[in-house]
Amino acid sequence: MEILIFLIVITLFIITSSVKVIREYERAVIFRLGRLIGYKGPGLIILLPFIDRMVKVSLRTITMDIEPQDVITKDNVSIKVNAVLYFRVIYPDKAVVSVENFLYATNQIAQTTLRSILGQSDLDEILSEREKINIRLQQIIDDHTEPWGIKVASVEVKQIDLPLEMQRAMAKQAQAERERRAKIINADGEFQASMKLSEAAEQIMKFPVAIQLRFLQTLADIATEKNSTIVFPVPIDILKPFMDNVNLVTFEKLDELKEKLANIDKK
Known about the structure:
CATH topology of the largest domain: Tetrahydropterin Synthase, Chain A
Oligomer: single chain
Mean pLDDT: 82
Order of helices and strands: HEEEEEEEHHHHEHHH
CATH superfamily of the largest domain: Band 7 domain
Number of strands: 8
Number of helices: 8
Low-confidence stretches: none
Structural class: alpha+beta
């Protein structure tokens, strides 16, 4: 009886160690007497007891946070940068055989590549052309991890920490740029206004009565505000006809006086 129970226990142990269920997102890398024979799954697989060994590998996309790295840019600015890496295992057998720990190895490759690529770029390029830097990082890391059966989907630079002095300098630069744009817009407005005033002056020169109409229109606009005292400059052109008449009368009287004096001298 004891022997029968022992045989039943051994049989159950052999069955449980031989029959394995692999999930859809997993693969089983099989070693037979220490030699790789391939990978199986998903579903039900059968292993040879005491001969086959199995290593499970997940095929799902892995999100890895790259630790913050101290980087000196090409223009000698010290910054701290971290990133996030998305990758997945394509060939489970290579991921197990070609590298001891593919997660740790991928993380180290990502850190060194991040420092290298950002160290070859200027600060302005890092801040303004982040998409290009992400593509370069993805291509280089993918080339390094391809022999391990790993495909790098994307790399994203997540955060860039700048020194406080650099932040202040950039704020001053941005403020100076905004002031420059404001001055350019103001000067452009003054130029356009002067062009319109020049065109208006040409029209008034062609039709002098227009200045009088404008004068009356301005008076009408001021009168609607119920002001008790109105100080308004009078254009000299309005008084010009009267001044011309006065000058004409004066010259005529001088001519008559000259004629009378000449007659007296003759007598």
